[in-house]
Amino acid sequence: MPVHVLYVAPYYSANILQCLDALASLADVRIGLITHESESTLPERYRGRVVGHYQVRDCLDAEQLVAAGKAFQAGWGRVDRLIGFLEQMQIPLAVARDKLGIPGMTEAVARNFREKNRMKAKLREAGLPVARQALIGSAEDARKFVREVGYPIVLKPPAGLGSRATVRAADDESLAAALADLFVTPSNPAQAEEFVRGEEHTFETITIDGKPVWHSSSYYLPGPLSVLENPWIQYCVLLPREQLQPHAQTFRALNIRALQALGVGTALTHMEWFLRADGSMVISEVAARPPGVHLMPMMGLCHGVDMWQKWAELMVFDRFEAPPRQFAAGAAFFRGQGPGQVVRAVEGLTEAQERAGAWVVDRKLPQIGQPRASGYEGEGYAIVKGETTEEVVTALRGLVSSVRVILG
């Protein structure tokens, strides 16, 4: 009997379609789409594979997802899964599942992951190491928090996405600027946290019914906040050949306790954490969705699998298998330098090819005339693969030290 799956795909962007490709590759799955797009815009390759379509105005509106789900339940007799991977959709998806009686992450658990103040409170109650934090709705709230923890502090939206819209305040002047940038009010509060210094890592975990079955850990080089504060930095993400290096193996116990405290069931989670100079570890935050910054294709390269297909299989069938890790991988991000809004020149590509070309397996190079990127990922990237961590580090170093993107 096929599994009836509703996939929420607001727009047909490349990352949303790669997930649809993964779902379409699974046998014994009946796929229905909930989308902002009309049925006529569905790419031709999915026709015949996608057997249901429901157009909504807003995929972040849980009631519209419920209406769509009821329509499919009436037409199909049942819906077994309601899924989507975008972080912003996790709460409305969970609300809709609860109201429709569809198995999967509940609203309470989704809020544990999505609402950062609630997340930190849950982790702290479980005795886990997290940065001190507070939800602030005014300048006085912020000043009170500073008196407790001292400068610098970090401010971010309470339901932020990764490091986007995250700012650091080092003194009263930068605090005032941060409060203005985030437009902090009682109705629009911000998450304030003490600033943690240390190496920044990720920790990806696959759990099935709350039981961890697979782990991976990567390095941010440098950390996301440093990248946001310094637009000229060419940064990297490194996935070592060793699936869990000693520091990550030590952190594993904290990761498992944290996921249990948040109530995870079946999911691929993406945790960010700090390793301090004294060896102590601090959990930053965790999301109940696949990681970004190209970690999904990188993990696939290391294990010789399609990780999006594996994620789809996990979410549909509650199963996951992957062969042992055989390679290391990394991503170098090319970010424009200068005050302009258009790429005027790209330098060092020949040198980069000489130094790292043998390891490059995927790339999207900046193009002359390309608009300045709006996100911290930058104007282009290259993904490398090697048999050892050292090879990948050498390749990444060659890329970021050679390529220069000039804006004008």
Give a short synopsis of this structure.
This protein is 35% helix and 27% strand. It is built from 13 helices and 19 strands.
Describe this structure in words.
This protein has 408 residues and is an alpha+beta fold. Helix content is 35%, strand content 27%. It contains 13 helices and 19 strands. An 8-stranded antiparallel beta sheet has the order 13-12-9-10-11-14-18-17, sandwiched between helices. A 4-stranded parallel beta sheet has the order 3-2-1-4, sandwiched between helices. Helix 3 (90-100) runs antiparallel to helix 4. The mean pLDDT is 93.
Distance between the termini: 58 Å
Radius of gyration: 22 Å
Total beta strand runs: 19
The average pLDDT is: 93
**Rough outline:** globular
Strand order of the largest sheet: 13-12-9-10-11-14-18-17
- The SS-based structural class is alpha+beta
Helix content: 25-40%
**What portion of residues belong to β-strands?**
25-35%
Number of helices: 13
Question: Low-confidence parts lasting 5 or more residues at pLDDT below 50?
Answer: none
Largest sheet: 8 strands, antiparallel
What are the SSEs and their pairings?
Layout: E1 3-8, H1 14-24, E2 29-35, E3 50-55, H2 62-76, E4 81-83, H3 90-100, H4 107-114, H5 116-125, E5 133-136, H6 139-149, E6 153-156, E7 167-169, H7 172-182, E8 190-194, E9 199-208, E10 211-221, H8 224-229, E11 236-239, H9 246-262, E12 267-275, E13 281-287, H10 295-303, H11 307-317, E14 328-334, E15 336-337, E16 343-347, H12 349-356, E17 360-364, E18 380-386, H13 389-402, E19 404-407
Helix pairs in contact: 1-11, 2-3, 3-4, 4-5, 12-13
Organism: Nannocystis radixulma
Pfam families: CPSase_L_D2 (PF02786)
Domain ATP-grasp: 120-316
